[in-house]
Amino acid sequence: MSTPDLHEYDVVLVNSSAGKDSQAMLDYLVEVALDQNYDLFTRFIVVHCDLGRVEWEGTLDLAREQADHYGLRFEVVRRDLGDLLTQVEQRHEANVEHGRDIAPWPSSSARWCTSDQKTSQVQKLMTRLSKDAHLPRPLRVLNCLGIRAQESVARSKKEAFGPDKRASTKTTLHVDRWLPIFDWTEDQVWARIHASGVRYHRAYDLGMSRLSCAFCVMASKQDLLIAAQANPALAAEYVRVEVKVGKRFTQKLSMAEVVAEAAVQEAAA
């Protein structure tokens, strides 16, 4: 697809997890803005969804550092009612109270973790920005995410650019969603990062393929094992919550099994 004209937007919102894809996207978007002579220092906003204890240590600080490298405004959003583990416990308690059996953990078919912990919080920021702008028309926002088709079959079916009807409103917000590095390969991502000279997260040097939650229900078993070895206290918290809610972390794996196997691997190393 062709690159959007940034001048059509009042705000370019760059979602940053501090992971490799959002890091490469940020560097690329700065280049696009400079090429188009767009005022990135007043109109670019880097937003990080703070996931609290379930993130890899140092993720929030790194996201801020990456934004600061380019001199960009940095915003942090988070779910006021608690992080993912708290939310899992809340769902379990609601199940007990109301006699229902809703899955307490998110899954590939029920990714409420993303909608509640990330998407909804970014939406609140966009609403605040529209109020602060005091415009006689809807605030035009280009919402950029570092999603790549190569990551999964499901992601490959997404549209790289288009209107975000869920985020837009009739009177205050017009939001388009853009996936700037949608067609990039992982090699292209890393080449961009290395060329930028900006620090990336140490989790990748440990062997992690992604940097979302330290323990993601969508993660590979290998990623979960690496994360368990690097984050034993957090892994123990997941096991505690798993026992409390009486449901495995995923249908195929329990966190208790992950922790046990990680310990065996570490002892054998």
Annotate the secondary structure layout.
Layout: E1 11-15, H1 20-35, H2 40-43, E2 44-49, H3 59-69, E3 73-77, H4 84-98, H5 112-133, E4 139-144, H6 153-156, E5 161-163, E6 173-178, H7 186-196, H8 203-206, H9 221-230, H10 232-245, H11 255-268
Parallel strand pairs: 1-2, 1-4, 2-3, 4-6
Antiparallel strand pairs: 5-6
Short description:
With 269 residues, the protein is of the alpha/beta class.
Strand content: 5-15%
What would the principal axes of the Cα set say about the shape? globular
Average pLDDT over all residues? 96
Strand order of the largest sheet: 3-2-1-4-6-5
Unreliable spans are none
| Helix/strand structural class | alpha/beta
The helix tally amounts to 11
Oligomer: single chain
E-strand count: 6
Major sheet description: 6 strands, mixed
Question: What is the rounded distance between the termini?
Answer: 47 Å
Computed Rg: 19 Å
Along the chain, the helix and strand elements come as EHHEHEHHEHEEHHHHH
Residues in helix, %? 40-55%
What would you say this structure looks like, in words?
By secondary structure, the chain is α/β, with parallel strands linked by helices. Helix content is 46%, strand content 12%. The protein is built from eleven helices and six strands. It has helices spanning 20-35, 40-43, 59-69, 84-98, 112-133, 153-156, 186-196, 203-206, 221-230, 232-245, 255-268, and strands at 11-15, 44-49, 73-77, 139-144, 161-163, 173-178. A six-stranded mixed β-sheet has the order 3-2-1-4-6-5, with helices on both faces. Helix 1 crosses helix 7. The model has no long low-confidence stretch (mean pLDDT 96).
